[in-house]
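To start, one record:
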Amino acid sequence: MNDNNEKKMNINLDPQIAGGSYSNLAIISHSESEFVIDFASNLPGLPGPKVNNRIIMTPEHAKRLLAALNDNISKYEAQFGTISLNDAGKGGATLNLADLMQGGGAKS
C-alpha cells in the first residue's frame, strides 16, 4: 500500500492498558470461526503459568496478525540481528491447546 492510499487511524490507549503485561507463553486454539490466543507468564517460584490476556479474533484477522508479525520480525532482525530460538524450551513457548489436552486431538 503506498502512502497516498494509506488510511490514518486515531488509536485511544487507556492508561491502565498502556503499561502492557508480560508474556513468555502463548497458547493458541481455534474453531472454524475464530482463533483464541491466551497470553500467559510462566515464572520461577510460581506453581504454573497464569493467563494474563485472552485475544479472540477471526481467521482473517489471525492471518493478518501473522503477516504483520512476520513483517515486524524481518524489520527487527534487519536492524538488530537474527533472533535465536536456541533456548525456546527454557521458559518461553507457543503451544497449541490440543497439544496440552490428553489425546492431543481436541480443538476448542
Q: What stands out?
A: The helical segments are 15-18, 59-80, 97-100. The first helix runs from residue 15 to 18. Strands lie at 25-30, 35-41, 50-57, 93-96.
